[in-house]
Write a structure and sequence with these properties.
With 226 residues, the protein is mainly beta. It has 2 helices and 14 strands, in the order H-E-E-E-E-E-E-E-E-E-H-E-E-E-E-E. 22% of the residues are buried.
């Protein structure tokens, strides 16, 4: 038999033989959308221009090219069968919103994410859902999510696990009224850092980002939002 013909026949036979997969199909647990009260948690429309200044007079202008982005992601909560080639997963499709602020050089300085999170409870096989708002910043593609974060709602009504509820990021420091470089702000929260860090974020639930201290130690203060 022609060698090439033989190889072709073997290839067809192999293609027609599918390896048995011991795992059943994935299980879709449903679509999870944020609560209506959470949808207004991001204090921007995305059309604003944010102007920040430093003590030396330098300014930083941030805009959002895409505004508030509404999307979904798949969250795997369990893998009951792990056999290859196709393990079985149980998953939700979850709604999230986010907005990214950039400067003129397309450096991403400030990030806001509002999403329903899947929380693995302590010593439990099931999960808890909670809506959370996370504020942070990162520059030139290197994430430094330094908070603060706000738990907006407990979706299941069950007690939030201690590791989640007590995490520093979920317990920002309320500093009430404060002044930065002569600009007055009210009802401000500062990120509660897990580790010593130069970076800091000062955030208002109604005004958004009012100041931040970057990795170099420069303090940038909101001069205007228009």
């Amino acid at each position: 038999m022609n060698k090439l013909l033989f190889i072709g026949i073997v290839g067809l036979l192999l293609a027609g033989c599918k390896l048995d997969n011991p795992c059943p199909p994935d299980i879709f647990l449903g679509n999870v959308t944020m609560k209506d009260s959470s949808l207004t948690a991001i204090p921007y429309t995305g059309q604003e221009t944010l102007v920040f200044v430093r003590e030396n007079g330098d300014s930083l202008i941030l805009t959002s090219a895409r505004g508030i982005i509404d999307t979904v992601y798949d969250a795997v909560v369990e893998t009951p069968c792990t056999s290859l080639p196709d393990p079985q997963t149980n998953y939700y499709t979850i709604q999230q919103q986010y907005i990214i602020w950039q400067d003129s050089k397309a450096n991403n300085y400030f990030f806001l994410l509002n999403a329903t999170e899947v929380i693995y409870a302590d010593s439990r096989s099931d999960t808890i859902l909670a809506d959370r708002l996370v504020a942070g910043f990162y520059k030139s593609g290197f994430p430094t999510y330094v908070g603060p974060a706000f738990i907006l709602s407990n979706r299941t009504g069950e007690e939030l696990p201690a590791f989640y509820k007590n995490a520093k990021i979920n317990n920002p420091i309320a500093i009430a009224d404060t002044t930065f470089l002569g600009y007055n702000f009210t009802d401000i929260f500062e990120n509660n850092r897990e580790l010593p860090s130069t970076e800091a974020v000062y955030f208002s639930r109604t005004e958004g980002l009012v100041a931040f201290q970057d990795a170099v130690g420069f303090l940038w203060v909101l001069k205007s939002k228009r």
